[in-house]
Every structure is written in structure tokens, then in C-alpha cells.
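Appendix B. Extra example for self-study. Work through it before the problem class; the solution is given directly after the inputs so you can check yourself.
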Amino acid sequence: MEHIRTPKVENVRFLDRSSGQRKASVGTLYLSATHTIFVENNPESRKETWVLHSLVSSVDRPPPTPSGSQLILRCKDFHVFSLFIQQERECTEIHTALNRLTRPESYSELYCLSFNPNVNIEDRAQSWSFIDLMSDYKRMGVPNNLWVHTAANSEYKVCDSYPSELFVPKSAPPSIIVGSSRFRSRGRFPVLSYFHQDTLAAVCRCSQPLSGFSGRCHEDEMMLQALMKSNPGSDYIYVVDTRPKLNAMANKAAGKGYENEDHYSNIKLQFIGIENIHVMRSSQQKIIDVGEMRSPSMTDFLWGLENSGWLKHIKAILDAGVFIARAVADEGVSVLVHCSDGWDRTAQACSVASILLDPHYRTIQGFMVLIEKDWVSFGHKFSHRYAHLDGDPREVSPVLDQFLECVWQLSEQFPCAFEFNQRFLISIHTYVYSCQYGTFLGNSEKERRDMRLRDRSHSVWPQLWKDRSKYTNPLYQNQLSQNQSQGVLRPNTSPYCFKMWKGLYHHMDKSVPPRQSPADFLSAVREESHQLEEELTNHQERIAALTGRPVTWEKVQVPRRRVSQQWQRYLGPDPPTTYTQPITSPAHELSSKAANHKAGTAHPHLTLPLGVKGHDPSDLCTCSDLESGVADLSSHSSSGGDDGKDPDPYEAASTTA
Amino acid sequence: MCIMRQGHKEELMEFSEHIKTANVEDVVLHQPLHPPSRGTLCITGHHLLFSDREENSTRQILLLLRNIDAIEKSVENLLGYSSLFSKADYSKRISGSSGTITVKCKDLRVLQLDIPGMEQCLNIAHSIETLSCLNDVSEMYPFFYRPSDLSSQDQWGLSSSEKYYSEHKELHKRWRLSSVNRDYSVCPSYPPAVIVPKDIDDDTLKKVAKFRQSGRFPVLCYYHRKNGMVIMRGGQPLTGANRKRCREDELLLQAVIDSSDKGYIIDTRSSQQVQQARMTGGGFESKSSYSCWKRLHRQMEKGKALQESLIKLVEACGDESQNMDRWLSKLENSKWLSHVQTALSTAGLLAECVERDGHSVLVHGSEGTDCTLLVSTLAQLIMDPCCRTLEGFLALLEREWVQAGHPFQLRCAHSAYSHVRLQQESPVFLLLLDCVWQLWRQFPLALGFSEALLLRLATEAYFSNYGTFLCNNDQERCALGVKEKTYCLFHSLLKPTEKEHYTNPLYEPTDLAIWPSVHPQSLQLWRGFFLRWTPQTRHLEEAQEEIRNMVIEWGKVALS
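Solution. C-alpha cells for the complete assembly:
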């Protein structure tokens, strides 16, 4: 609290830019230790917006204007808020405070550790046992006579970024493990990630070998030999280096690099060409910029998309997953995946492959397990990548964002294959950045253990599970879609299959479509159908209880209105915005105000999981989905600018609408 | 084969001169989404028939020759090339010459036929080339097609100006039905009956027709019940270089609006283009002569530019390279989505003038048979819930495209693959369907029809068993007896057996306007059409099917 000198400012104008709001609302701004809170003055709505400090990625302050000073809050979940504060001094103070509050220096400042609601210790303990990785290994048939549990890394002795529980080939004794780990970057020796029971082939992961130009390691060669031997169906393995070959070669100069095929018998080396975290960071910034363009033409938009390179990167990751899945499922060959350190691109490639190979990971619970396994337990550096603490900006990169997007792209291609919808993915994305739960804190299992996170915070998964009805894809696992939900997915990775994920970047809020995918599109109906069934059962039960005999209905009045209301955002006498007039025309502001008013029921935008306000954070996506009453149709002015551009010499004034 | 049987005799006689080889055995057919299959290929006057001979399957593929946009043939039998052949090809070559015909269809399907025997292959190719672009409308398949279940037709079509007029009693106070064009002499591309202001008599209309391109004097095409405003459409005024005026034309427009009110004219050309149009005898309504009308210009591409856009897009979709940058830049370069954006935003502007601002609007470009119809159709879908049902939409298409004189015969003669030098081809109707699809995607509950309907229409306009899209206007259809000698597509789509497939299971009527977003991010490539033959689209169809099933199931629950 010592950083907050001005906890409250009145008459602040506030604009939720990401949801397409164009007319600022006036209200009061509060700063708390954990949130920036804006409460609208409008007595009817009193809309509240809560912005968690840890979700703010930057606070910009453009030069002040006569009407006041402005602060722009850019959030890690791609919301953008503008604040207009009349007094220069107050603005400075808020700015200073936010700058400090949004850049926590220690874990203890983070929401999940600083905010201690009165909760049951048993509940907390139970929340951590919700996901059990050992039972997932058991599910895939491990340990068995090919793969065994190793205690080599207990107490994180061999590799401090690996979990303590690991599975290795049966023929690899501890001496080989330790020797191999010495030859691998950060000690990340080859271990099992996924075992495919149908073919007995496995997906394994590690980091790059410390081979340099000529180095070799007998134990590491033995280790790879052991990997090959633990797949009786094949006499070689693929080594997938997910980096571009050039990058891998450059690493040789630093004493690292890739496996020399002359030293390892029976390996086939394959480079995939996923770019490094720095390229990805700037690519994502570019695609965010595309979304923020004021009134792009179709050409501007498609150029922006191309120049960002984002979809190209997503395709590369998916291609990596497809290569691995094919090798394992179709060829029955085991694959060893690595990049440099084996915690970014390797995690992406392995988890995409697992999703393609195993239908279980396409369920809500299975997906949680997958993230817990391939990302959390295997030492993906969450706190560095997602800037949980103020640190080196060069460590930040949207690695998990890309994985989630790959899954979204797959779900667009196979609308019936996933039990969850995009809201689930977006919620996970938000939780990864927001630090409301302990699950994603720290950079490795060891760090989390040392922080005693299990005693001090909650796991996110039970919360997501509790809300699963919101995250369920209604098209999943119906009679017709069996071939999508079962077996191995074989996606098409032609460029035309990739789309921009508007849902994540809140671009959809600016544009009209309330729903994007066929899957999302049906949720409402399914939900309703369920509700109806439930209602029917309830009624029947109640009547049965009252009358003592079961009742059948002649006909049920169907409350369908509820669904249709969701769709009526842009239905109505007024277009969401005008197709003719410039954005700032007063007539329009009126109409958009009305529209906002209509749509804007109070929804705290970022809410708290543990009951501070009793709102559920995942509401966020559902609300912003359905809410914003105004669309950015400024593109009309670009396509319709003829009036002004080529004035009629005879009647220039009159033709301008 | 049953559908081909009747009328077969005359067909055979007429087309036999083009068919040297009617049957070839042992042909291998490669088609998207299916493994190659071996069977017999048959060519008739209107069809390519392939019957699969493999293992007691009786699969047949019947392809209307009119569907074929282009073919490419290659024959292999020259021994001099032997060094070029790999070992695998060697045995094939030894067994005799063979040829391959790649068939590129207007529905964007690409088939490949491996035909044994060079001569047979060349004969087949020649027949396809000739028969697929016969220009004589009366020789086209709709005149031979006899569906088994539509034995007699009581009426042809769903809607007409007369019907529209009688359905809208509110119109009668200020508007009348004129039969000035009963013999198509005033405007050859208009239907015999049109709706015009009551105060304007037929003689005045004749004079106005002389002042408008192709005689297309302004007529009413939509009446907005909520506020009594209307949409009119016509051709451009022939003001010419010396700013000719036409008193009657001014009177007609004045009669549309109350003296105190004002109207809008939406010109689908830029103000620069209309200035240029004056040099060739065309022009625009000047402020001084039409003081109550305000002109708005929106430049919309049509004609060749649009056709080239389609060709580029289809080319991009067929690009096999896995390069993302290349795909995005080709997609951009095709400009197709820009055309979609412009069309929807112009329609939005039109609907806004009528619905929100409460003004009547006259739409025209130069001829008023392409973009004009596109814009007025989309605006009606945005505003009028009656147009959003399956029947309503088909009726709208019939009024605004078939009867309003969109020259289907010229515009849809060839599609994206054709090597023929382009003449009047232009995918305006396809652009309309794409825009409607965007609406359908943005408002999945508001439209009563399914994507399947749009896909069906997108192909029927180019090749069809039915007569609906034949010819360029009502007059031509009348002269050929289309209504008597062919069957109506719209009626067949509404047959109980077909109808379910073309309705939207989630349809929930709303009286409100549906305002499309034209933000670039809101517009998407119509994958269902442009990537129809990729496996990916199959998964999406499965999803659609699933939706239909769920709603049926849901309906059962609701009734239980």
C-alpha cells in the first residue's frame, strides 16, 4: 500500500478500447493493492471495471492535452483501457503508483500470495491433488516393460528444471542418465513425454547436446540407443530439432548444437524451423498492432497479417506436431524432440503432437493434464515468459499463447473433436498471466516447491473444472462426429487453413460477429437443450413428488428467447455505427451511447477467483463476447471516402454526405 | 441414368456429330476426396458419365458438361520421349498409348481422367470442348431435363412485381403497377409489369426510359413497411457531355418523395467515374436538376475486374506451396475480400438511409443490371425479415436478379478456370452469394436458409438442370419458352424432400435489421465454396450436420 498516494480520483473518463467502446464513460477511479477499479457515475448501471495489476503489461502516458492527461493501460490479455484524468498531478501520481504496482518485484507481491482469503486448508490441499500426473502416465500404460520410473532426479539432483518423477527406457541405468545429462544443455536429458500404446512408439524430450563441433558423449549415445530399443517396432528414431537448421548450427560455436548423425547410430535428424522466442515476441506485437489499426482497409489488414509472420509461426509449430504424430502413429517410430533448452519449442511440439495423437487430451480434463505435464512439470519458465515479476524483457515471449492458438486452429478445423471451446483456451491464457492462482508461478517444479506454493496458494484447475459447463463444446462426441473425437487427428496445414484468432486478441469485440466458430455458435442451443431437459426432469420430479405419480407433458413452452437475446446486439433500428458518417459525429455518439447503455450491464472486467467480488473471471470472455454494443465500422470511411476524395466540381459541397 | 432417359432420342440426334467416341472402358478417374477408381466413361450430348466398375459397386458420377470450365489434355505415346519416362511408366507406355484429361469445373472441382488410347482421349477431349460451350440456349440441358417427381408445374417461379404489389397494400396509395413494358419494347431487360409512382403515366415512363441507359427507368424494388420509404433502381441517366435534362425523369423522381422530403441516390461508381461516363453519353443526376436528391458515390468493381479477382482467388486457393506469406499476399492480391467489403458496406449505407434516416433511395450504376442489384438485394436482406426465410430469399432473388434482368447467360458463361477470352463474364451473382454468406455467418440465427442453399445457387447459376437462370432477361426467356419447356429451380428447392437440407435449423426470425460488420477482421474467405473440395471442408460439413441433428433432437425434447 505504500506505493499508493492517491487511492481515489473522481471525474475520470474511462474508455475500454478493446471492446470497441468509443464514448468514454465518466466515473471514479480507485487504486487498491491488487486492482485498478473504475466505477461509472451513471446511477443506473454503476458499471464496475476491475483491472488486476498483474495483468497490466504497460502503462503509457501520452503527452497531456488541454482536456487532461491520459493513461493507457495495456493488458496481457489484450485489453486496452484509456483513462483521462483532469488534474496533471493526480495523473502523475496514479502513473507512478501503477508503474510500481504492475511490476511486482517479488512473488509475495503477486495476487495469489498476497491476497489471503479465509479458506479451508483441506480445500487448498485438495485443489492441488486435482491433477495427478502419475495417473496420466498410468493411463498411457507407463511404467511397463519398456519404460520405467527413475529416481535419478529426486530432489532435483540431476536436472533442477525437470520434475522429480520421470520415465526413461528400461535399458538406461542411472549412470547413463547422469552421463547423458552432463552432455545436455541444463542437464535436460532425454525422458518420456508421451507413450503411444497402439504402436509402442514414444515421444521423448530433452535439450540440445553440448556437442560443439566435434564433441561426443558415450552415455548420451547409449541413451538414444536405449530410446530406440524401447520401441520394439522400429530400428531407428527420429531426432526432431525444432529450430531452424541455421540456428542449430550457430549454436555449435557456443559448444552446443545438434546430434552428429555419424556418432549416433540409427537416428534420423529432422529440422522443423520454429523461430526463437525473440522473433515470436516481436511477431505477436505486430499482430496486436494489426488489431489496433484505426480503420484498416482489407489490404492493410491482410498486409499486416502477412508482415507479422504470426500465422507462419503457428503453422510451423503445428507442422512440428504433425510430423511427430505421423512418425509415432503412422510409422510407429519414436521421436526425440529438442530445441535449445527444451522448454519452449519442445514443449509446444510435444504437446501439439500429444493432442493429435491422444483423444484424451482433447477433453477438458485431459487438456489440463497436458498443460500440467508438458508445460508446468517439465519446467517451462512461466514466470519469465509471462513477466510475472519485473525482469528481463528479453525473457518474455508468447510461447504458451502459440500452443493455445494451435489448439484453437485445430478446433476450427475439427469442430467436433474437442470437448472444450475457445473460452476455455482464453481463460487458461488469462490465468497464465494473471497470477491469481499458484499453478503457473515460478519457472520449475523445484522453484514452486521451494516457494511452498501448495501451502500458500490454490491450483487453478478445480476452478476451471467447476465452470466446465461454460467451456463445453456442444458438438463434441455426438454420433456423427466420432471420427473427429476418436483416434489420431490428421489436420491439413495448408496456409489457407489458418485464420487469425480474433477471440483471443479481442478483435471480435471491435467487429460484429458475436460468435465465430460453428462450435461456439451452438453452445447456446445445446445449453438450452440441456436446461430444458433438466427443467423437464425437475418439473416431472416435482410433480411426481406432489402428485405421487409420474407426469408426461403434452408440450413444453420453450423459453427460446434467452438464446436469441444474445444475438440481438446488432439487430435493431440503428446500425452499430454509421456506414456514412465519421466516427466523431455527434449524432453517432448519441446512438453509440444508447447502444452501450443497452448492452452495458455491470460486469467487472477482471474479477477475482476467491470471492472478493464473487465474480468469476471467466465471465470476462463470455461478457465481452456478447456485450459491446458498438462496432468499429470506421472501415466504411475508407471504402466510402469517394465523396470527399473526388469532389464534383459543380457541386462539391452538396455531394458530401 | 433415369433422369437422362427422356428426351434422349432428340438429344442424341442433335449432338451425335460432336461425339466420335461415346464410350471408353478402363478409364481411371481421380477426384478430390476419393481414391482413384477405374470404370467406364460415357459421353452424351449433355453429360459425362463415369461408372465405377470396381468390386460390385455401382457408383456413378454424372457431370453436366456445362459444368466444365476448361480441360487440359496430355497424351503419351511418342517413343522418342522414352528417356523421359521413369521405369514405372515404362510398362504403361508399352501397353499402348494413353492420355490424360484434366477437367476443371465451374464448381471448382478438378478431376483427372486417365484414358487408354490416344485417339479415344482426343475424341473425348474434343467432344467435351465443343459440347461444354454450346452457345445456343435452346440446346441446353434444361430443355431436355424431365424430373420424375415434378410431373406438372402449375406455376413458374415464386414472385413477380404483380405479386409484390398485391402483397403490399400500403403501396397502393401512391404507387401503381404499370404494364407499359408488356411487350418489352420500352425496356427489353425489364419484366412486363413494374411498380412506378401513381402520378406518372405510361407516356411519361416511355420518355424517361429514353433518358435512362438500356431503357431502365427507375422502378420500385422495395417498400419499407416501417416508414413507407422505398428503394428504386434503374440505369444511369443519359445526360451526356452537354448536361442534357429530362423533365419527365425529374418528375418521376419528384413523385417518389414528398415535396418537403429529400431522397438519396446511391451511385455505384465514384464521382470521377460518373464524370467520365458523361463523355460516353452517360452521366448522373446533377444537383441543379434534382434539388431534392442527394448523391452518394461508392465505387464498386464489376465486369472484368471482378472476374479477374475471382480467377486470382481460385488460383491462390489451388496453390500447393506451403508458404503462408505467399498465401496471404495472393489472397490480398486477388482483392476478392475487398469487393465483399465494398458491397456489404454500400448495402449497409443504403439500408441506413432507408431504415435509420428514413429516406427513399434510388440506386444505379451505369446499366443497373449488376452492382445495382447486388446492393439492393443485400439491403433488403439487412432490413426486411420477409426476405430472410428460405422462400423469401428465393423470391427476392427471382425479383431482383432473374426478372430485373441480370444477364446470367453472359455473366456466368465461364468461371475461374476458363482459357476462353473473357467477354462479358463477371461473378457478380457469386459475389452476392458470398456477401449473403458473410451475413449468414455474422447472424447465424437470423437467416432461414442454410449454407448449402448458397452453395447450390452458386453452382446452379453456372450450370443447371433447371431453366431458372437461363438467358439474360425475361424477354429472352419468353421468346424461348423457358417457362413452358423447362423446370423451375426454386420450386424444386422447396420440395419437401429437398427443403430440409436448405433450411437453417437454428433459424429464429427477428423483425429487426441485421447490420453487418464490414471490418476486415469480420469478413472471411468463404471456405465452403472456394475450398469446397478439400478434406477440411468435410469436417465443417460434419459439424453442420451435427447441428441439424442436435436441433432435431432438441425439438424432440421440447415436444416430449
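Self-check: The radius of gyration of chain B is 26 Å. If your reasoning did not lead you there, revisit section 3.
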